[in-house]
Write a structure and sequence with these properties.
CATH topology of one domain: Rna Polymerase Sigma Factor, Chain: A
Distance between the termini: 95 Å
Radius of gyration: 23 Å
Number of strands: 0
Number of helices: 7
CATH class of one domain: Mainly Alpha
Structural class: mainly alpha
Length: 186
């Protein structure tokens, strides 16, 4: 049995690398197609800016590509953690009081009703933005991103009980502030 020439051995190694990278790219494409919308929602929930949220999505999947997904037990929680942290870092670069526009998802023809709805949405968003980070972040991840308390705990590095308590306190504060504002306006 003769030895294989060096060039054919090299070709076999290169073929293995190409096949391995093809499989990795296919896995990455599957992760992107399944979770990109979710990652965008997490980033948008923190940043309130679609352009910045898209930048976060791209950065998340670049990091996933570099790190791979081996050993990841809960893909949604892991991606949410990365997106959340990148978005919070992005907030530090942007003015915290900057709020983007939100179009009402209403089919109402009445301009007055649309304006009232838009005002109410902006009011709620301002109240949420005014919450302390420790209360706002769990609330946003729960209500807008639909993460479980376990997943939110993993993202924020706190216990599930702490997550539930913070969400409860955030909702109570919002409820009280909205009630107070409703009483003031006729």
């Amino acid at each position: 049995m003769g030895a294989q020439p060096i060039s054919s051995t090299f070709s076999l190694r290169e073929t293995d690398r190409v096949l391995q990278s093809t499989a990795e790219l296919a896995e990455l494409e599957a992760v992107i197609s399944e979770h990109s919308r979710f990652v965008f929602k997490v980033a948008y929930g923190v940043l309130h800016n679609a352009h910045d949220a898209e930048d976060v999505v791209q950065e998340v999947f670049l990091r996933v590509h570099r790190a791979g997904t081996k050993g990841v037990l809960d893909m949604r929680a892991w991606l949410a953690r990365i997106a959340f942290r990148l978005a919070v870092d992005g907030l530090r670069k942007v003015r915290p009081d900057e709020l983007g526009e939100l179009d009402p998802a209403s089919n109402a023809v009445n301009a007055e009703a649309v304006t009232i709805h838009r005002e109410r949405v902006h009011q709620v968003r301002r109240l949420i933005a005014a919450l302390p980070d420790e209360l706002r972040h769990p609330l946003v991840l729960s209500a807008m991103e639909e993460l479980s308390t376990r997943q939110i705990g993993e993202v924020l590095g706190i216990s599930e009980a702490a997550v539930r308590g913070r969400i409860f306190r955030a909702r109570q504060i919002l409820k009280e502030k909205l009630a107070a504002r409703s009483e003031v306006k006729p």
